[in-house]
Queue: 2 jobs
Job 1
Amino acid sequence: MAAGLQNVFDVPELKRKLGFTLLIVIVYRIGGHITVPGIDVSRLMEWFSTQQNTVFGLLDMFVGGGLQRATVFALGIMPYISASIIFQLLPPVFPYFEKLQKEGEEGRKKITQYTRYCTVVLAFIQSVGIATWLQSLGAVTLDNTWIFRVTTIVTLTTGAMVVMWLGEQITERGIGNGMSLLIFFSIIDRFPGAVFQSIEMLRNDVIGIIPMLLVVVVMVAVVAGVIVMTLGTRKIPIQIPKRMVGRKVMGGQQTHLPLRINSAGVMPIIFAQSIIVVPATLSSFLAPGSWLENIAGYFQPNTNSYAFLYVLMIVFFTYFYTAVIFNPVDLAENFKRQGGFIPGIRPGARTAEYIDKVLTRITLPGSIFLAAIAVLPIYMYRWLNVPFYFGGTSLLIVVGVALDTIQQMESHLLMRHYEGFMKKSKVPGRRAM
């Protein structure tokens, strides 16, 4: 492990990517502490102290506490994620977007541009809702209502655009997925404060020693489970026959296709979280007691209906995102062109059906695991009255993103014949690194 870390600084490209990512993260965290003008932060934080187990507490976790401080980056990356979900759902419904998907790089550029426009619209709508909500709380120090609304809407919408740009820069020029990394650093930014707050609660007998020990045990179990589910794979044997290329004999080897149990990573939880906060955001536009506010009541994290809907969304988005990033038909065609085949399975359509069948089966336990981890904080808070941010969702995202980032760094090292972070893998079904 130590040798692997040393090798990181011996690869100029990897060192440059890590330095650029760190610079972007610093800019992101600085923006996460600049408050929107005209806000009484003390009043807002006092209100948030009672909202750890609500939608607002969940959303604040994903933006690193930016919402309770009403910072310029209070919306975080969530509008961009919501827009991405929309344009991933559109191709099967609208032929125009399906055509763009098949146009290659140019089509993807157009979809990315449309996603950015949609992000602006969503950020504007959420900014209007947040401005109205802040006024209803009495957390505004400006006397002129319209000046405050315009200033807040412009500031928050612009902040969301900057966060979107920062995430794209990390993806293109840094290391790892920009969206996931920004959420990763937003979550770990709150961990030190959460630890100190838990210690204070333990000292004041708000939390007993046994519940706190149980929380620690659950956290360790969740981390271990996330690592196993992230690294676990199902190997499908692939036979590549020998063929003549000029005077040389090529091929003639056995390999395998590794299918990950959790191919979607942490994205299903992020997608589900982006969708499930929409009713609460929209209800802020209407007067108290409106029909939309009544519907939003079913989406409160302290209700069983929320847990049920959340589980369904996560299972759906796990299958959906896996289908987006993994196409068995294209994979089967590539095998057929190379002369490869799965022993006992005919090339072409039968191979695609077999891969899809295996992927569907192994994705089910992965989706159930994600759903169980996501709803764990709800019942931990209900039964043990422990801080919500010690729940499985935050740990899942932190551990999952950390593993993905380490694997990307590992691939950079191995491509340049450096020793990786791990010499041998102890996880069944995964080759040694």
Note: Strands lie at 233-245, 248-260.
Job 2
Amino acid sequence: MGDTLAWRLKFGIVTPSTNTVVQPEYDDLRPPGVTNHIGRMHIADRPVESDADFETMMAGIDQALEDAIERVMTCRPDHLILGISAESIWGGGLAASHAVADRVRRRFGEIGLTQAAQALPAALSALGIRRRISLITPYFPVADPHIRGYVADLGLEAARLCHLSCRSPVLIAHTSEDELRRALREVDGPDVEAIVQFGANLPMARLAAEAERWLGKPVIAVNVATYWHALRSCGIADRKHGFGRLMWEC
């Protein structure tokens, strides 16, 4: 007899303690028979006013990874999801995500792991995106070379980036839809095949789906791509309306 509610799949999800978007957005995407279980990576909600502050925040997140996974592993998940996108590319593009996966395997053994670094290229490929994308992030400009290096690793070109420079980890989730709409228009253009939103605490899952209609191109929210990839990696092909082409068509 398996888990009564998770009769199909049990996800263990780790995300920073300051993140208030991953849990509700993942729950909105959850199909019947799949359950989500959150392990919090403890970080302080300190002000972020410079590139140096942002680097300090990233170091704290990295140090908290294993402890959060250890806690969530006690519920015996079938698959792990890393609900933070920067951790999977920071300091080495795709190689950084491989290093994270190696850390998880060494400590916790062989368990499936989904990271944004692998989810986004799978999503772009599924939607037929091959050349140029633009990106929106909540990060400070220090993130720019990390993001551009990652995009180059995918064989794509980053046409334009908008870094919103949010002033604390919690305040990322306070970004308004008007601010996000302005950012979408800022990075859009006829030369751009798709827009990708990075930063798992930006509340963008539903807005990205709306933006696809008025921009006429794929707009990929990182939480949607990550959860979609985790489902598909585990053989669950359920489709969900209201979260864009990726969840409905792919």
Note: The domain at 9-116+226-232 is CATH 3.40.50.12500 (Rossmann fold).
